[in-house]
């Protein structure tokens, strides 16, 4: 079966590799977003999917929006169905009608929960304990199409959005391959989504700021959800200070929100409830380090506090 693959970030690379290696499927071309400026020097850099597709010897189409020329290029691939993983743009009706069997999207949530660009991040920030992935038929809505298949997984104590996305991308790859074949063959009839929908818009940098006045579980969930991107941060001595790892410490109390204390070689920060234990940080202009090494290096330790 001839398949067009559409995706952009690193998360979308494992499904591409899996489809390319599947003997039942021929990936005839890859659609990804145009090179984007990266780093302080704003160097135009191809997407992770685009780079990997070129390494695999696959034709690459780059576009941030659908044009008549792109529609012609899509038709010319000869694909009968398309697979989509985090392409990064809504597709209008003319594009959705290009392929005989449509577009099958792998989305990293249990739809209709967490429709949008940041489903895993929002799930962890909300304290969800069950996560998953859904394959569905794309329509003109935001992740509103009928469901083909799902898988579920549990959130682990050490999980961040980065680790969950990596795991779901890997576990969701065979789900996507089977869904493409099931839809194209007619073995599976996609079913309308059911349940209460929730939105998962892209995270802003402001949302990644730690709010120490929140209860400890909410503080820890926020950090997990925004790690590694856009990255949790707070302010220390007027500069941005990155927070990489922490966990609630319900046995530790009596520390004001944002205040830092070292107790028996552990670094604790007060919140709106109990403390959290801080384990890894990155001060402004420095490399990541253990929270204990950082805290020991501060003068007037009794007055150390985050804003």
Description:
The protein is α/β, with parallel strands linked by helices and 307 residues long. Helix content is 25%, strand content 26%. It has eight helices and 15 strands. The protein has helices spanning 13-21, 48-55, 68-76, 93-96, 119-125, 161-185, 216-225, 291-296; strands spanning 2-7, 26-32, 36-38, 43-45, 60-62, 81-85, 103-107, 130-137, 147-154, 233-236, 239-249, 260-263, 266-269, 275-282, 289-290. Helix 1 (13-21) runs parallel beside helix 6 (161-185). The mean pLDDT is 96.
In short:
The protein is of the alpha/beta class and 307 residues long.
Topology:
Layout lengths: L1 E6 L5 H9 L4 E7 L3 E3 L4 E3 L2 H8 L4 E3 L5 H9 L4 E5 L7 H4 L6 E5 L11 H7 L4 E8 L9 E8 L6 H25 L30 H10 L7 E4 L2 E11 L10 E4 L2 E4 L5 E8 L6 E2 H6 L11
Parallel strand pairs: 1-2, 1-6, 2-5, 6-7
Antiparallel strand pairs: 3-4, 7-8, 8-9, 10-11, 11-14, 12-13, 13-14, 14-15
């Amino acid at each position: 079966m001839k398949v067009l693959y559409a995706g952009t970030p690193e998360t979308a690379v494992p499904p591409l590799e899996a489809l390319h290696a599947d003997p039942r499927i021929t990936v005839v071309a890859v659609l990804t977003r145009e090179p984007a400026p990266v780093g302080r020097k704003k160097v135009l850099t191809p997407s992770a999917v685009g780079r990997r597709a070129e390494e695999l010897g696959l034709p690459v189409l780059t576009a941030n929006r659908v044009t008549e020329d792109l529609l012609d290029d899509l038709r010319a691939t000869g694909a009968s169905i398309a697979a989509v993983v985090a392409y990064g743009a809504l597709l209008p009706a003319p594009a959705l009608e290009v392929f005989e069997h449509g577009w099958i999207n792998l989305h990293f949530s249990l739809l209709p929960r967490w429709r949008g660009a940041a489903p895993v991040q929002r799930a962890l920030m909300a304290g969800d304990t069950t996560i998953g992935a859904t394959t569905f038929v794309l329509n003109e809505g935001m992740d509103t199409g009928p469901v083909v298949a799902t898988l579920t997984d549990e959130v682990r104590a050490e999980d961040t959005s980065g680790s969950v996305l990596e795991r779901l991308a890997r576990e969701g790859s065979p789900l996507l391959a089977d869904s493409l074949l099931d839809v194209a063959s007619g073995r599976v009839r996609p079913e309308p989504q059911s349940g209460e929908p929730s939105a998962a818009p892209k995270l802003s940098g402001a949302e990644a700021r730690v709010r120490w006045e929140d209860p400890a579980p909410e503080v820890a969930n926020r950090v997990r959800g925004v790690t590694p991107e856009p990255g949790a941060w707070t302010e220390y001595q007027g500069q941005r200070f990155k927070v990489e790892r922490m966990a609630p410490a319900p046995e530790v109390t009596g520390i004001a929100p944002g205040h830092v204390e070292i107790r028996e070689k552990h670094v604790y920060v007060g919140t709106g409830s109990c403390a959290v234990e801080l384990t890894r940080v990155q001060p402004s202009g420095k490399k990541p380090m253990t929270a204990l090494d950082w805290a020991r290096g501060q003068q007037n330790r009794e007055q150390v506090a985050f804003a």
